[in-house]
Write a structure and sequence with these properties.
This protein has 9 helices and 10 strands. The longest helix has 18 residues. The chain has a domain of about 140 residues: P-loop containing nucleotide triphosphate hydrolases (Rossmann fold, 3-Layer(aba) Sandwich), CATH 3.40.50.300. The strands form 2 sheets. It has a 6-stranded mixed sheet, sandwiched between helices. The chain has a 4-stranded antiparallel sheet with strand order 2-1-4-5, covered by helices on one side. Helix 3 runs parallel beside helix 5. The protein is an alpha/beta fold. Bound molecules: adenosine-5'-triphosphate and magnesium ion (MG). The site of adenosine-5'-triphosphate has 12 residues, from strand 2 and helix 1.
């Protein structure tokens, strides 16, 4: 289906917050060149799993491997530049313009202004953000525009692996559909490995070659959407699928 070895692997990774087990020991491969979708109810551990993959939080046990090499405190800074992250709720700095938000890491790395500008405009075209918007502050942008800027920021250093945490959560249905189409085109054009979080099954099916369903800090099932519908690993999978009323089960191949 995709390139040979997984770009990222979790091996028996677990995480507690005090006495609370946010993630039970979890083993998971992220396929190279594919979109993996993490889905599940609020609080099931999607963001925690994402931040463990990014090395932003350290696991209590287990290992995270990026291209077969264990992520360690010594190599995490370099590896982080090879991973882009669109934070849940945008995470743009309010006191910086769109262009300054996008160019933050490039500036930190000492890129020449001309190179940064070229990349800014290239990305602006890619995500279809009007040039004038680059000069604005987050408070002066719509939700959809802010998401596009967040995506530009995550793509600035041309990462090998892109993480998006509910990138379309707070948008109205029309803007959401438009951005879904744009994102799908961008993932395909750039042939990136992507991990995307959502709690919407229709969105998961739209994006994901591989869907990972979580419940209370555990992976309940990993597979294609048709597997979740036709071969549920657990009654919770069926409950979750049936609870998504607007999701078209037949379109997912359940009746094939
Ligand atoms: N820093 C923290 N300290 C204590 N508990 C935390 C912390 N971060 C997350 N949690 C808890 O861990 C659980 C998983 O949180 P997480 O943010 O991963 O959920 P999520 O699946 O991303 O939810 P949502 O869909 O609402 O974003 C939740 O019960 C949350 O309250
Ligand atoms: Mg979350």
């Amino acid at each position: 289906m995709t390139e040979s070895s997984p770009i990222l692997q979790l091996v028996a990774v677990s995480k507690r917050y005090g006495a609370f087990a946010a993630l039970a020991p979890t083993t998971l491969d992220v396929d190279t060149g594919a979109t993996t979708v993490l889905i599940g109810p609020s609080g099931c551990g999607k963001t925690t799993l994402l931040r463990l993959m990014l090395g932003l939080i350290a696991p209590d046990a287990g290992q995270v491997l990026f291209r077969q090499a264990a992520i360690t405190p010594a190599n995490i800074r370099g590896l982080r530049r090879r991973m882009g992250y669109v934070v849940q709720d945008g995470g743009l700095f309010p006191h910086l313009t769109a262009a300054e938000n996008v160019g933050l890491m490039a500036r930190h790395l000492g890129w020449a202004a001309e190179k940064t500008n070229r990349r800014l405009h290239e990305l602006g075209d890619l995500v279809r953000l009007p040039t004038a918007t680059l000069a604005r502050y987050p408070a002066e942008m719509s939700g959809g525009q802010k998401q596009r800027v967040g995506l530009m920021r995550a793509l600035m250093l041309d990462p090998e692996l892109l993480f998006l945490d509910e990138p379309l959560g707070a948008l109205d249905p029309l803007v959401r559909a438009e951005l879904q189409d744009d994102l799908a085109t961008i993932f395909k054009t750039l042939a990136k490995s992507v991990v995307l979080v959502t709690h919407d099954l229709a969105e998961a099916a739209f994006f994901g070659q591989v869907i990972v369903l979580l419940q209370e800090g555990r992976i309940v099932q990993r597979g294609a959407i048709a597997d979740l519908v036709r071969r549920p690993a657990d009654p919770f999978v069926t409950r979750f699928v049936n609870a998504q009323r607007h999701f078209d089960i037949r379109a997912a191949g359940a009746d094939a």
